[in-house]
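I had to read the description of the data format several times before I understood it. The format is easy to grasp once an entry is in front of the reader. For illustration, here is how one protein appears when written out as sequence plus structure tokens:
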Amino acid sequence: MKILLVDDHPLFIEGIRNVLLQLNDEVLIQTSGSCEEALELTVEEDDYDLVLLDLNLPGMSGLEGLQLLRHQLPATPIVLLSASEDRHKVLNAIELGAKGYIPKSSSADIITNAIQLVLSGGVYLPMAVLDTVNSTPQKNTNADGHTLTPRQIEVLKLLTEGLSNKAIGNQLEMAENTVRVHVSAILKFLEVKNRTEAGVAAVKMGLIEEAL
């Protein structure tokens, strides 16, 4: 099993390396201190079974790196590691294609179980986030049962005000490419082809009022 660990904290790297070595007897772990370095590595090698990616890295952020690594390694599950358990960040990561979100405060057993779940094809979310999601009424639900995240509601509101992806990114402090991913998900959710139609559909569904 070949794992790429992208993190810049030596103590955490050493600790999680010991956890990963318990997965099986043939674990090969490669490390990278930044998304930029990880992207360079994956140009030369693309046979990773798993990528563990720190959310807060120097230079390119973990969410930006997530999108680029997904493009470079489309068949490899990517799991985010973070000291934060903020629900919005967790859901945003999953929306962008992460297969899991593991708080760095998790025990060795939780980390192991989470990784095994992801490697078997599942998606891991912290229990605190699952409890919040399960107890929150799903108001913004389309005909297929899909919902928009709170972050996507924010993007939708600014989108209907006529802001460009770049302007939305500046206002919400997000990368333009991240905004583009959210806009694409919003159009798919609303089952429309462009921003004008999105505005009309959002008003009909009452999404704009909920975002105010």
Remarks:
- The chain has two domains: 2-133, 150-211.
